[in-house]
Specification:
The chain is mostly helical. It is built from seven helices and two strands. The protein is about 65% helix and about 5% strand.
Length: about 200
């Protein structure tokens, strides 16, 4: 299993939405009117890397998912070692002519094949469960940020809040960077869930 912090990038990158304060036009605007409206746009941006490294929700859930991923990996590795040990024992018995009938050999082979199928099914189930948990956390993070931004924008009145991730914004004037405001506001209202706190403090 790989590191899991990238799971949140998708959640954060999708919540900074356009047109926070757009209005429907009663008439089709003229070209000049559109130009004037564009000039008056109020735009800000948030740095994704900073948000993910400083928003406590991200840090807490990253720890939770990392632990879950490590537990899955340990479980599968243990099952794989058990399977390999069993297969080696059967092979040794075969090499030493310890099987008395062909039916006994076939039963031993069938047992190993069943263990292989069970392990593959377990791996699929655990990874699917992990993906569902990942998706649920993504949605929770996205809802949390969207909810905060809506309240934040009631006074700020931004038309667009963009997300700066890597070089997706080739030029960004630092004076429009509201990352610190967003992180501060999110952390101020964030309260860790008791079950999450329990998972984090429990030794692995």
């Amino acid at each position: 299993m790989k590191k899991y912090l990238t799971f949140m990038a998708f959640a954060a990158a999708t919540v900074f939405f356009a047109a926070c304060g757009t209005k429907e036009e009663e008439e089709t605007p003229t070209e000049n009117a559109q130009d004037e409206e564009t000039v008056g746009l109020k735009i800000a941006y948030v740095e994704l890397d900073t948000l993910m490294s400083q928003y406590q929700l991200y840090k807490d859930y990253s720890e939770v998912l990392t632990r879950k991923g490590n537990n899955i990996q340990k479980t599968l590795e243990q099952k794989q070692r058990t399977l390999e040990s069993h297969a080696a024992a059967v092979q040794k018995r075969y090499d030493n002519n310890e099987f008395t009938t062909r039916d006994e050999v076939e039963r031993a082979q069938a047992s190993i094949e069943k263990e292989q199928r069970d392990l593959a099914e377990l791996a699929d189930r655990l990874q699917n469960e992990f993906a569902l948990e990942q998706s649920r956390i993504n949605e929770e993070a996205r809802d949390s940020i969207q909810s905060f931004l809506k309240r934040y924008n009631q006074t700020k009145k931004y038309d667009y809040v963009l997300v700066k991730a890597g070089d997706n914004l080739l030029i960004a004037n630092p004076k429009y960077n509201i990352t610190n405001d967003i992180v501060k506001g999110l952390n101020k209202r964030y309260k860790i869930k008791p079950e999450v706190a329990e998972q984090i403090k429990t030794p692995e």
